[in-house]
Amino acid sequence: MAKAGRPAATGAPPVRLKQKDLIAIEPMTREELELILDNTVGFKDIVTRTVKKVPTLRGKTVVNLFFENSTRTRTSFELAARRLSADVVNFDVATSSVNKGESLLDTVETIQALGADYVVIRHGSSGAQEYLGSRIDASIVNAGDGSHEHPTQALLDCFTIREEKGTLDGLRIAIIGDILHSRVARSNIWAMQKLGAHVTLVGPPTLVPERFRDFGVAISHDLKTGLRRADVVYTLRVQLERQARNLFPSLKEYRNLYGIDMERLKYAKSDALLMHPGPANIGVEVTREAMKCSQSRIEHQVTNGLAVRMAVLYLLPGGREYDTHADQ
Ligand code: CP
Q1: Which of 209, 212, 239, 322 is the most buried (most CB within 10 A)?
Q2: Which of the four pLDDT bands, split at 50, 70 and 90, describes residue 326?
Q3: How far apart are CA 279 and CA 12, in angstroms?
């Protein structure tokens, strides 16, 4: 593999993603996912060294446009763009003309007219980024759309697992919790299976309906059964803000049946990784003790998010023909 951020030593043009946008994992191939994960290795090397900046996206502009709250995704996209020497604008939705009724498309067209090459968007409506992708020249990067997909979260999760286990091929991964409302779960179900893992969804029938079997996964409504022989225990946040009605009796009931603590972690393999996308409802879906235990990779997930997002920005064309000399 060429060192990340530089063209191949042969003088051949660097291999990049053919797609303009990163909207969803579902339509992507295993080879495309592996291209991103392979490039992430090089970018992780860059972010852990003393001089953390490369000139790869010098002259490019990345705009972060978040219509929903975020800590990890927004901060890591901003840092990723800065580490690649791009100009970064964090668009403030609250003080923008969105509040005067400007449409999403008009807003993004305006941002593009100001020179954006990449627009990183989180939006509450599933499909918002796909709608923009076919109407805007800039590369649209989905930072989460409703309960549809959160592709860079799945990429950083798969990178974290691959880093620890060497491969996802043949691994058993249990995803626990609010699958129904989770864009993280949907992106991970696609990504983990494309990379060769066996996925079991665990939770109450109201949050893990039978129709999810269409994704090719197994389903268990019993935590002990679902975690048996698992290599990865991936617990999700209970998304109280997305629940239109009560889908379980109480948080206490949920914790009693599906909360992960040190004892329940033992239902999985002794070397199983514990993961969570964050932010966590501590004491509901996972205890603080479990989050901090030696099997937990929750902090690694956050750290790896930066390198994965650098790889994504590098590999997408930025809405324009690439200047292959920009990173020399
Ligand atoms: N996991 C995740 O998307 O976290 P943020 O909402 O903090 O970005």
Answers
A1: 212
A2: very low
A3: 42
Instruction: Classify residue 170 as left (phi > 0), alpha (psi -120 to 50) or beta.
Output: left
Verify whether ligand 1 is closer than 6 Å to residue 256 (CB atom): no
Tell me 215's DSSP state.
G
Q: What is the Cα–Cα distance from 44 to 46, expressed in whole angstroms?
A: 5
One-letter amino acid at 36 equals: I
Q: 152 and 141 in contact (C-beta within 8 Å)?
A: yes
Q: Which residues pair with 82 in a beta bridge?
A: none
All structural domains of the chain, each given as residue ranges with its CATH number in brackets, are 30-149+303-319 (3.40.50.1370), 151-297 (3.40.50.1370)
Q: Tell me which of 78, 148, 153 to substitute to probe ligand 1's pocket, judged by most ligand atoms within 8 Å of the beta carbon.
A: 153
pLDDT per position as a tens digit, 235-262? 999 887 666 567 787 888 899 999 999 9
**Residue 153 beta carbon below 6 angstroms from any ligand 1 atom:** yes
Q: Taking the complete model, does pTM exceed 0.90, yes or no?
A: yes
Cis bond leading into 279, ω under 30°?
yes
Q: Does 72 contact ligand 1 (Cβ within 6 A)?
A: yes
